Structures
1.
Amino acid sequence: MRSAAFARGFLGILEREFLRFVQQRSRFFSALVRPMLWLVVFAAGFRAALGIAIIPPYETYITYEVYIVPGLVGIILLFNGMQSSLSMVYDREMGSMRVLLTSPLPRSFLLLSKLFAGAFVSLLQVYAFLVLARFFDVTPPWVGYLAVFPAALLGALMLGALGLLLSSLIRQLENFAGVMNFVVFPMFFLSSALYPLWKMREASEVIYYLCLWNPFTHAVELVRFALYGDFNSDAFLVTTGATVLLSVAAILGFDPGKGLLRKTAGRS
Amino acid sequence: MVLEDDGSPVVVTVNDSGECTGERTGGSTGDSAVRGSGRTTETGTGRTEVAIRASGITHRYGKNVALDSVEFELCRGEFMALLGPNGSGKTTLFSLLTRLLVADSGHIALFGHRIERAPANTLSRLGVVFQQPTLDLDLTVEQNLSYHGALQGLSKKEVRSRAGLELERLALGDRAHDRVRSLNGGHRRRVEVARALLHKPDLLLLDEASAGLDFATRTSLYEHVRALCDERNLAVLWTTHLVEELKLDDQTLVLRQGKIQASGTLASLANEYGAGNINQALSTLASGDSSP
């Protein structure tokens, strides 16, 4: 197949995701309201309760709002990944996923294109949130806004791949509540998004190690360092490794001969 | 070997280059290859490419057998109806033909290529209208077609010119910029047909495409698709459970509990199973009695 066909396929998927995003304005606003509530309400309440020590990449004492912003970027990426998963389960139940899967382009290429398109939409929301955060005295250096692009993109791909994998495993839309309870909330709360890991260790050694093994922690740390023009190689390696593993598993999940699709097709 | 409408059998052979050859012989029926109806058989002798060749297709969901040793052939320019009650295995067969599933045993070749070995060669020649609505309601008709065109590797320019033509033919030329959400069920179905034809496929699969439509819309959709067989040398597999929407000379496969229960034109099935009444014939077949 010609490379032009691949380029058109990719751009077509990207354009559709963007158009859907533009059409669904409420989705954009709700994606911003969620982290803003955490930043304005939750952070204000916790500012007094939690002291933040000087930890890398910060060079001085910081407010809790400053600490929590990379975690809230992570929230945007996490919820977008799950939103994308939810819409894929919906698309599969409603049938529109079939249009994608019956394209002559390789299925792995189509799924990766969808992953990139979802990540692109996530990044638009991340930048909108970072602009709003400036009004609450979260002002990272300008270079951070550039450096955060590849970091947030990698995080978005990792969480999008997780969503893709979940959508190949979930048989019905109703099962999605379980995903929120058993995947999204544990992933978010057992991470460095809301509290630094040393603080977790003070509370419980077990919880500390759970947080350390959580790939979401590393995605958040990658964003945190990037936002201040720094690079965390451990976080990069873990996030990249998790992205590759989850993507491969998701592609296998959509393989018609191996994946769960074979068990979910209707009989009529 | 299959029977012509007038009862004379046609020997069906497939040569090495994957062409169908239909030749009127006047002999008796022997072991049969189920074939569609269309240009080849109408002219008496003809050659055309085999669009679908399904050989010994068996598929299970756990212990449930959804399809059991299904075999049939469909050539370009031919129309074939796949008739069966709910749960007969039509949608499973459809999913196998579109590579959404892979058969447990047997194989499907589209245009001479095994579908699982050469998905790009086969799927690029395939147009599909799914049973469930697959249009994006929040996008316009044109945006939906553009998305499909991109997935088929078409340029924007090609999509624009082809979309205009297909929508015009389906009397939807003035609705290109409308949101799909604002269209009624019949119009949405026609958009799906236009979309399936956008990349000029050689084989069109329609899975219960007329479900939920009123009689007039169903008839016009059927007439449009039927005409494409001749105009574009298109092979069409039309899946339905409504016998009323077919014509008596339509070549038909009757599927029941995953097996091909009977095949032939509706007229010949009526004669064989139902004393001249096709509904009676089908209810006989649906009850599992396949003996004439």
2.
Amino acid sequence: MDAKALLYKCTSDARAYAATRRGWLFAHRIWLARRASQILVLAIFLTGPWLGLWIAKGNFASSEILGVLPLADPFIFLQSLFALHKPIMLAVIGVATITAFYLIVGGRAYCSWVCPVNVVTDSAYWLREKLGLTRDRKLDKRTRLWVLVAALLASLLTGTIAWEFLNPVSLLQRGIIFGIGAGWGIIAAVFMLDLFVTRRGWCSHLCPVGAFYGLIGSASLIRISAINRPACTDCGACFKACPEPHVITPALKGTGTHLILAGDCTNCGACIDSCYVDVFQYASRLSPRHGPPEQYIDTATTSARPGRAVAAAAE
Amino acid sequence: MANKFIADRVEPSAAGANAAQRSPAKARPAGSPPADIPRAPAKKQAGVSRRDLIGGLAKSAGIACLAAVALDQYVRSARAIDATALRPPGAIDEEQFLSACVRCGLCVRACPYDTLKLATMGDPAPLGTPYFIAREASCLMCPDVPCARVCPTGALDRNIPDIRHANMGISVLVDHETCLNYKGMHCSICHRVCPIRNEAITLEKQTIKGRQMLIPTVHSNKCTGCGTCEKHCVLEEAAIRVLPRPLGQGKSGRNSAGRPITGHGGLRRDI
């Protein structure tokens, strides 16, 4: 078996359609960019300790970029407020900067473009598919919101930043930057959960960090648009590739806006990669081109179905 | 009102459209012409009854509370810090510290001697928080306290005026049996290495069992708990150790009028 055949054998089912029709690189272009982004974000924290070239100090919880720009995680900050800690100005600036950034690039862009646990859970999902594991202990998608509320309540009750005693996301990024010790155990547990127990169990069902960024994402500027939806061949590749498939339906199969507006969408671009007829693209929420099609804006109250509109015209 | 909800839920065409909408992933052979997918109206079709709504909310609240209690219990067990693990200089009271510290490691990066570490699983401090072990690496007492200055949350006091205001713990000569000075020798290493020499630790002349001895004596108002004495104690296990202040320092009580029990009446414990 040559290298190319092996590459295609390793390609996930969802991307195989696009990979065979448009080439492997086409079906992984945004995936490659995401992995590069995830590595790059960690790399700017690692050039300091490894090479003595200090770009960023600290870690994802709070950092100092080039000795001036403070950045801070808004979810940790919120827990700190619930723990009744009086914030200092530097933290407020850091949180505001990060929140503004994710309001632009999409809240859960954190999950798919930054968070290192995403690599772990994506790998688990890929392996799950390749091993043919179909057992799926169903969890409610909203569990993560309940965990989020629980983290805030526990912060209030204990007077600590409660989720940080457990958070695999912090554990892994901090572990990579500062040394992980026995923390691999929790990361292995997340991997096993996603592999054996629940399909995309951690990122799409349990993680309150993702849920929090999802809340930011429901108002964020950059969204994915199913702008070319008439070309859809119903091959189902995007639904297979998407970690949150329920977000696609309204934009792809609805008659309203082309934009995927659900905060759960991670802007990962798996739908863009896996669609061989280029239905999806990144778009601005404010762009009218990607909003609801014009013929439905005025007639939405009377008839929203093209079939009915045609029938009415015939009468 | 109720009738409307029921009507919404049983309307057959709406149910059919929903079913078609829910399973678009059903694969057709690739390349065949796209079927005419029924386009769902933008209007929401399925109504949610008040009972379902309240039931759902109650369930969510219940699960959130359950998870909160579980997390609360876990945090209470995981928040303990080992007596050997010391916080960086300028750290606020341990209770408040865990509400402020985001575990970012900026203090660790600022430490020029790599004394500070971030705890990982199984380390003697809560996960991710900064600490040091005096016996392994003591605080070298930089006068400008760079670690506290960079703290982005106030877990370390950024405005600490001087390292001498730091309170990492209190040095205690815990073992009088193995301490060489108590054996009549003139080791006094702890006294000689102390960065606040002759103030935090002094050598006090004492007569014990008829022999003159120089006993290292810690002065709590000067000791910062940097741990230099513990690190350099020549014994295999240090006889002098830095302990968290509440553990290493006594405190006199107060009488019923709220005045400190000191001086002549201080030893009477007949109340």
3.
Amino acid sequence: MVQARFKPGDRVRVMQAYPVGHVRTPHYIRGHTGEIERLCGSFANPEELAQMRSGLPAQPLYRVRFVQREVWPDYKGSPQDVLEVEIFQHWLEAA
Amino acid sequence: MSDQGKYRPLSYFQLMEVTLRELLVEKGLLTEEQVQCEVEEMRARSPERGARVVAKAWVDSQFKSRLLKDATMACEELGLEIPALKLVAVENTPGVHNAIVCTLCSCYPRVLLGLPPDWYKSRNYRSRMVREPRAVLAEFGLLIDKNTQIRVHDSTADMRYMVLPMRPAGTEGWSEERLAALVSRDCMIGVALPKSPG
């Protein structure tokens, strides 16, 4: 199992990468900065599972909270509205 | 059945399902009975299961704390098996409204809510719920106060979410069964609120 590098409250940036294959990091959130809401546990890497490999070692999975106005500059709702997305650790870097 | 008697050729995915199923049975990896059993189990799951969980949380504050801490374990207490996936319950409060979407496909807490509605799987809902949730909720007839924070949960990986709605006023002293009847599928996705009594 891969060691968890982040804790709740840490600021993180989602990597802006576009590898081919089965990736569970939505395009719209790549390159954006948010805050770790919680560590969900460690899970087999879906990018590896999709290639019929084991997906091990398991990767830490986080819920990351993003402010809507930061993700969509023309967001029309309240400035306090947020979006929470599950992101695997190998897609995150400290911000 | 409205479509009875109308012949339609199988679609690409239906044909793939039949082919794969027949191959698995032919090779002895599955039996027709196992497939049938699984289909029946899938049909047996319905939003009433989720409503039971919500009603229990409304009347039992200790259960509610356990549900918010670890929803998988809390549901298992009620005899609801949550295979493999982790369930997360998110609580609506006077200041926070939660809603759930899966932008990548259509991940859904089937074990508690049964099969997802078609709109949940539509491109329209999936793309707009993260982009303009207030407009989407308004189309469901749900207007959220501008001082209430909206938290949209994109169910992208191994968690599944259910919204724990707020207990409607005027239901003091109600039994769990009576309360559960106020909780619809849509309130547990976060696109509606529980019915008010009366």
4.
Amino acid sequence: MAAAGLYTIGGSFWEFGEPDWDNTEFFMMFGVAEDHDSNPIKKGLAKLKERGAKFVSVNPVRTGYSAVADEWVPIRPGTDGLLVMAICQELIRTGRVDFDWLARYSNAPWLVIDTPREASHGSFARDADGHPLAIDGRTGKPSNALRSDIRVRLSGTVEVEPGVPARPAYDLLMRRCMETAYSPEIAAARTGVPASVIRRLARELADAAFERAIRLAQPWTDWAGRRHTHVTGRPVAMHAMRGISAHSNGFHTCRAIHILQMLLGAIDCPGAFRYKAPFPRPCPPGQKPVGKPGEVAPGAPLAGMPLGFPTWPGDLLVDDAGRPARLDKAYSWEAPLAAHGMMHMVIANAHAGDPYPIDTLFMFMANMSWNSSMNTTRTMEMLTDRDPESGEYRIPHIIYSDAYASEMVAYADLVLPDTTYLERHDCISLLDRPISSAEGPADAIRHPVLKPDPDVRPFQDVLITLGERLGFPGLLTAEGEPRYPGGYPDYMVNHERRPGLGMLAGWRGAQGELIGRGTPNPEQLERYKENGAFWFHEMPPEMHWNRHANGDYLSWAKDMGFIDSTNQIVLQLYCEPLQRFRQAARGFGTYQPPKALCSRIETYFDPLPIWYPPLAQAALLDEYPLHAITQRPMAMYHSWGGQNAWLRQIHGANAIYLHHATAAAQSITDGDWIWVESATGRVKGQARLMDGVERHTVWTWNAIAKRKGSWNLDTDAPEATHAVLFNHLIPEFLPRAGDAARLSNSDPVTGQAAWFDLRVRIRKALPEEAGEAAPQFAPLPRPPGLAPAPTISRYGEDFHPRPKPLRRKLT
Amino acid sequence: MTGLPASTDKKLGLVIDLDTCVGCHACAVNCKEWNTGGHSAPLTDEDPYGGDASGVWFNRIHAFEVGEGTAGRTVHFPRSCLHCETPACVTVCPTGASYKRETDGIVLVDEDHCIGCKLCSWACPYGAREYDLDAGVMKKCTLCVDRIYNENLSKTERVPACVATCPAGARHFGDFADPQSEVSILTAARGGYDLMPEIDMKPTNKYLPPRPRANTCTAPVTDDDSIAPSGFLGLVDRVFSR
């Protein structure tokens, strides 16, 4: 999700941007998105409805936000990208595209070399100084596309050198979108959204963007120093999250949504999607992942950040033979742009010793023997599997840190009990997932309100202590003493990533007089506490819009350390880094993918947006006609403690939801016990019939089910007896093609786990099978020393101001 | 049995907006959090970590569907005491434990006088009463009587916990006796309605119906797929400034 945004618009949805709730006229949300930014979105939706703006929800399931949408568009899972491409086609066909915006703010005019048999094919044509070229409208000849005074063409062809033809990126995009495969009629057949609805949505978007354009009297200065008296607004906003990214076509689907926004000129202007600091950043941001062979040494820290943004094959973390350097195979040819890592593959790879065996698996708050894994049944076996020859565990040692007795704790050799966030310091930093608003940057701290149990330590303190004991220079002074003797709060204040830049942006400098950049302030945490634990800086209004091209903003953002240059951030309709990987797959350049992956790279590293059916589904359509997806209930979002006495009364069991008609076809009635079967496994639960679900889709709440004996719940808890876990059904690998190596069930571009590509069939359970969810496993033994859970909770009675009458229990 | 005031000075109550409630349960949880330590403390949970957890909640959210297909709707319906003007739960009470306040119209239970006979829960047609099995007394929504007059709280916090926390702005609190109050104006403007008016308990709380769906498409959609002159055909000759 974020990867596609960062390579395309230098920002993304969720923490990276937000809709302009006050001005948008048409808001479109794709897929489940109820987690990140959840309260701001709820507030925003209420604003839209008060103003009468239209809210369209594209989602297979009508729950949560979709329940209050003005229009619910039930779509087949994994086809959102096709819907978006068909809308793009419709906009292009009807000429309702913001060409002026594209020419000014995107790489639409940049010339793409068209020499199919040469290495340079698909690259941008550049001048001797490396500037991209565009067709100069006055001369018809190629010229520096970045000049502020150039007048450019967006279509046609031109020779950039004798015998080297090139076309503007927009010309290529337009041709891609106009392909028959993206017509509303073809899209209708696969998405389940009628062609008339697709055409209407396109027209409504265009009407809002162009007929109801906003002219905001807000002066601003652009990247070239030109003063403008107004900002033009396109009151069309979009949002997407997990519903899009949890498919193996998620990267391109997300890119398609950003391209739709760009066709409408609806980026960071009034009424549209707005960046939140520290975004926008260059597309993609400059940091590269570190961890190539030779960059990792025992007992030594990694030389840089483990995550980053590759722009060509030389950035991959692979050995000379092209084999993955990382255990999860992130940044390998299997998932070159794995900006999120590939946590879901760590156990399967470690168990297989592929790319290498490991000695110790060290994890924090990742319930990998249960709801955080694909193919949970098999994963549990892997965690205890032994090599028959040596008798050794295939994963010899497991260290695990968690605040609760989750399913994973039982598999650990060493448990590091973590605190909850009520008992520790935390830092919600601009360096990680910002909590800024469009009007300015913000960050926050948590500080303890409860004293932790003496046997429990905040995990951040554990990490700092480990680093000290390993002798990592960043955590020790020149004299070899701990650099942060005060633990994590000390680190929050005094760690500097670069001189003057630290975890917190507020109240920096010796007197707390600086923001963004400044020496550490020993009183910084006190200032945060005085201010409700938050820091927020509102930028002046001339910096509120078009920040990718706003000169005042860009220089201020550079001063703040958000970006390294004040250059205009040109948004990338055409994604050249993808083409570099694709050309490698075609045999060009120094680094090439292993043969078995060439056609995969060539297909999916398309510099233009594409839609393809989710990978795992292709072979399974007939045998497994239904899609299966999950969503986390809103009451539980970001609640690691789902065993909480109150939350489990709201969601203590979860049924299998499906459409009345789908159920009727198999004589299933509400409350029947049914099996859901995939090629990987099967689960049993109770059917609940509904109307607001796409007919080829079954769904359930995620992470309600718990293993018997875990989380200090009784073994007859409904979480164990009446809750299903779809993770058992999801394969962690794609079906093996011939003798090729196994590939993870992930997006081939980013390695993002394809949780929602799952295909299933359903079957009514036999009468004797009714009564309990399946699969069941032996109850986990109680962790030693764990006190039994109370059988009654009178929590709160101590707060009561007057003595209570004697208890008179009547039953 | 227990009498009702002839009239009340204020008619405090809630407006619940079914147009924006997304069913997040924040109101229910914050209600539980505040009230388990408040006037009716505790809101006991029986078997909280077992097979049949069951607790006292003053506010419960029901989800159901209305209509079919894309014309249908999923409704999230928060349900709590409506603080009726003529509540049967009061008149049925044999001890005077259940009462309606003359000053503000809030319906409360005096636990010292409640014998746990449950007549009130049988009488309430809205299912708003919550019996605390452990304490042996009836409990119910107090409209956070210990918040709304609480001078230890800032003025903005002197609203019921459910109203304070609702991120979607779907809950409003105020005095329905005052025609100029926010809740009165909102109710009038949005067609706020009584639940089951036919049983004549005159509930104070009002529900706002979903707004008419925004429809920004007025002209009919044709399936003409000819390419507009302003589309890519006309693009070749055009130049754009940076």
